[in-house]
């Protein structure tokens, strides 16, 4: 489900079935390396949109968590933790954070969400057909990750 | 004789007024008529069929085919990817099912759960459908999968819109 009025109405009705949130972590910078920073965000948003399409009924795609690339890591982490607390209060069991920014890997153990880091693939110069294949291959693996998260929760 | 054929000033004014008035009326009426019949014009454009695959490739095992359609969503026009599960049933007829789960809209997969081979399985809430797309009672979905409008032309399968049963 998306962060839109129509989908949220459905979410409130079917709350018991939606226990997962996908939160893209997207860096911002206007001063250096803009293109690399943008490609990280673009890639992650393509992947998360596709993920939402496939698993619409059980996950809610949140608007991206944005931060300045120059922001201190502790500050970013604290802010993310606050979001996590809020989401858990709202009855969400699984939070999946998607990012292309490797910095998050270092604080993975401090956050309660399942962090999925993947390097951004530059899609800019690919032709349409190849782009589709690349993205769907990636999404397939992310799907696996998400369904595994659900399964491990049933067993535990 | 010559006098009779001449156009009087009054006649000339009458003609030109009718002409100009006619144009103005037409100018006002045309958009109204267009608005009134607009839904009819649109319907034709929406029923587009998209070529998906060769019919010779279709077997009795469902395969997932992705294709793109143009979608207008308010002011936002985009290409969206749609998928279909395509196979031949026992009567050798082609069946194209929409993979969108009737429960909450996840994408169902064919025999992806080892416990239930030969069934469509929804990874979100373990909804199941038999091969013909009918929901298995006791699982979350309450309706069978949608079926695509389809036609076969020159050995190619064309798909239209998915329709609920």
Automatic annotation (TrEMBL), chain B:
It comes from the Bacteria. The keyword Disulfide bond applies. The chain crosses the membrane at residues 12-33. Pfam families: Rieske. Keywords: 2Fe-2S, Disulfide bond, Electron transport, Iron, Iron-sulfur, Membrane, Metal-binding, Oxidoreductase, Transmembrane, Transmembrane helix, Transport. One of its GO terms (molecular function) is 2 iron, 2 sulfur cluster binding. CDD domains: Rieske. PANTHER family: CYTOCHROME B-C1 COMPLEX SUBUNIT RIESKE, MITOCHONDRIAL (PTHR10134). Component of the menaquinol:cytochrome c reductase complex. The Rieske protein is a high potential 2Fe-2S protein. The main subunits of the menaquinol:cytochrome c complex are a Rieske-type iron-sulfur protein (QcrA), a cytochrome b (QcrB) and a cytochrome c (QcrC). This is Menaquinol:cytochrome c reductase iron-sulfur subunit. It comes from Guptibacillus hwajinpoensis.
